[in-house]
Specification:
- This protein is α+β, with helices and mostly antiparallel strands and about 625 residues long.
- It has four domains: about 5-120, Jelly Rolls, CATH 2.60.120.10; about 150-265, CBS-domain, CATH 3.10.580; about 310-460, Beta Polymerase, domain 2, CATH 3.30.460; about 475-615.
- It is built from 24 helices and 19 strands.
Amino acid sequence: MVGVADDDLLALLAGYAPFDSLTPEVLGTVAKSAGIDRFAPGQLILDAFTGANPDVFLVIAGHVGLWHNRDLLSEPADERLGPGGVFGYSAMLTERSVGPRAVAVDEVTVARIPGAVAAPAFTTRAGAQFLVETAGSVNRRRSGHPAYSIVDELIVRRPLTVTADTTAGETARQMTEHDYPYAVVPRPDGTFGLVTDALLRRRILAEGGQAGTPVGQLVEGAAATTVTGDSAAEALILMLDTDAEFLLVTDRAGELRGVISPRDFAISPTTAGVSLHEQLRRAGRLEDLDRLARRVPGVLGELLGRGLASGKVIAVYSAILDTIVRRAVGLVFEHHPGLSIDAFTWLALGSNGRREAVLSSDVDSAVAFGNHVPAADIARYRVAFAEVGRVLSHAGLSSDEHGANAERTLFARTNHDWSVAAREWLAKPAENNGAIMTSLLVDGRPIHGDPGLPAVAQVFSDLRRHPGTMRLLLQESLSRRAKMPSIRGTLTRRSGPFDLKSHAILPIVNLARWAGLSVGSAELTTTARLRASAGSAMLPQGQAATLVEVFEVLQRLRLRYQIRQHERGEAPTDLIEMDQISPLDRSVIAQAVREVSSVQRRMDNISHYVPVESWASPEQP
């Protein structure tokens, strides 16, 4: 190790990201803790594939070759870093042997910084942005393609929780003992507070608080929260937007599943699409939003072409749709200063509500107003909602003006009116399109406004107490039967267009929605609903697993063909010309429809001789 003056190293560190984001005090600690190493050409600097790496390296002079894929170490280096280049942070942050291997290209001087003091540089807002800008390219080199993650995949251990009456001293002891930088405090309203090292330092040390103070009195507001199934990129953007140290992850029922921090994104290649997300979110004009939204299909095609699983591409698309809709609402309401954008919650319905939208999907919506909003004002809001619809349509997003959208009176109500209507639909589902409206609303997902405002979902949680309604909803779900393409046409390749959505996918969606309701599941996606309801008298484990597989196969095929249509300059559609697709795809569609039809027939038969009360009972061995 070569000595160097602290002031010199301090100046060097201050000039390079992410260390330039640190305060002078923290930066001084980093400089005092770091050492300077020199390496001859060809000398190994780091091999983070063979063991844990506790340090971060900053190139001061010379060049370093990096290998990010352990299977390609005999090939030329994936990357070459010059002065200012930082490496080793992925292994340090994740405490895993994820690489890289670093070798000196010429005479090299590096600063070796202990991970314990380097970590704060990656947990600031600027540090998180540094990870966004660098981790994606690293992961593409490591795996050959981006593996776009969901937040579930970032959770590495169970969260630490304490009750609101736990003292600050005891909370600090538990955090220290278990090596957690936080503790989660469940609150009576279903939200969570968060105790962090920084909060304890400020409230107890700086402000003179007592160690015996209950932490419930220390936490400030509800912690930033995301939901399982959400894209990791969207979660990272939320973290950046809120300047949050941590992001809580709950399931759709509100149960805490984990806590993530900016460092958890170090090896998660969330950068695929993040740039477009950020540009969409910050679009300053409707013209900018329109231009950016039209780039989305191309991004999806790129993700799919690089090997990203179709299910994750669809999840990315749903997240991007949310961003587009939220920004469209924001930009439109800038031109309506007399209307409050905080007076309502915007619900995504249909496939986007379930996070299953593809390029042909309609952007269905509904709005729940606070009970204080008078009917006359709601009419004014609906005019603005119509403008939002036109903005989305002009941006290339499908919309049915006669379908479910927030500009229609039927889909723009106060929270109280939604609750009243929902109870009427439960009591008399055959009247006022009760069964159809129920199916629409149970797919609803808040994407703007107060997520706790819509009470209609709470009404539907009692659905199993209405056996007559359950039976009618089942009949409605089974009314759209999976339809086989013509056998003769399939064999002769002379069959016409086949509606993949109507005749194959919607039957699964409808069946899964009903099955989820039958067991009281709060899940939204079709596959999650099938898994939640698997093993019942109506839907045995084997058939549920088959439907999950069939749905994923059909969605993959559907997305692939729609991206091809877009690339040819055609409007994406669910109609597939059977004589123009491969024999394998024709066979896949035919087999999928047979499987769905078989499950529908069985459920129809079971419903006639098994009491409604036993439909959700465990299947008999």
